[in-house]
Amino acid sequence: MRVLVSLLACAATASAFLLPTPTTRPASALFASTVGAKDIVDTAVDAGSFKTLATALTAAGLVETLKGPGPFTVFAPTDEAFNKLEAATLNALLADKEKLTSILTYHVVSGRVPAADVLKLTSAKTVQGGDVAVAVSSTGVKVNNANVVATDVEASNGIIHIIDSVLIPGAVAAPAAASKEVGKSLDR
User: Per-residue pLDDT tens for 130-181?
Assistant: First the structure.
């Protein structure tokens, strides 16, 4: 009986990390103790898997903005997503406030856009000014080429959808190609 209960608990936990489909459990269930109680920045920091994003937001001077009233929808890349970028590229971005701000604001959409509404979109205008492509398929949702891996993390000033790659303005390419595209744009 204990083995069965343990297996069921593991299966329930694992199902929360599947690519989102209209029936996937929202990530807000994983953050139940803080749902809506904290702003976007504090919610992401408390999750523990957005350290690089928090560092980048600080370097770009965007922390106070994303702690503001909003509402915002953030497609938040995890630390693993940032690790897909070459170290030299990431370090160069952290040192270039203008390019870093452009990339980070490309992950933010004005307003609160829950997963149910994202599923109806084909694109979304970011606060950076560019559009991100949204594609829904039987395997999940993509924003440009990033997979949405968890949805609807509620914050007091918006909502977070977790993605597995960093979005690069003007680059709708595979993560490795996107990393090279960032490197090219830094050379300009």
Answer: 999 999 999 999 999 999 999 999 999 999 999 999 999 985 443 344 444 4
Q: In what order do the strands lie in the sheet with 140-143?
A: 108-110, 72-77, 158-163, 146-155, 140-143, 131-137, 123-125
Alpha-carbon distance of 72 to 80, in angstroms, equals 23
What domains lie within the chain, and their CATH numbers?
Answer: 18-187 (2.30.180.10)
Residue 67: pLDDT band (50, 70, 90) is very high
**Under a CB-based contact definition with an 8 Å cutoff, are residues 97 and 55 in contact?**
no
Backbone angles phi, psi at 73, to 5 degrees: -115, 125
Which amino acid is present at 183?
G
The pTM for the full model equals 0.75
What is the Cα–Cα distance from 39 to 35, expressed in whole angstroms?
10
Residue 49 three-state SS: coil
Task: Give the distance between the most distant pair of CA atoms in the chain.
Answer: 63
CA distance 8 to 37: 29
pLDDT at 33: 44
Q: What is the 3-state secondary structure (H, E, C) of 90-128?
A: HHHHHHCHHHHHHHHHCCEEECCCCHHHHCCCCEEECCC
Q: At 34, which amino acid appears?
A: T
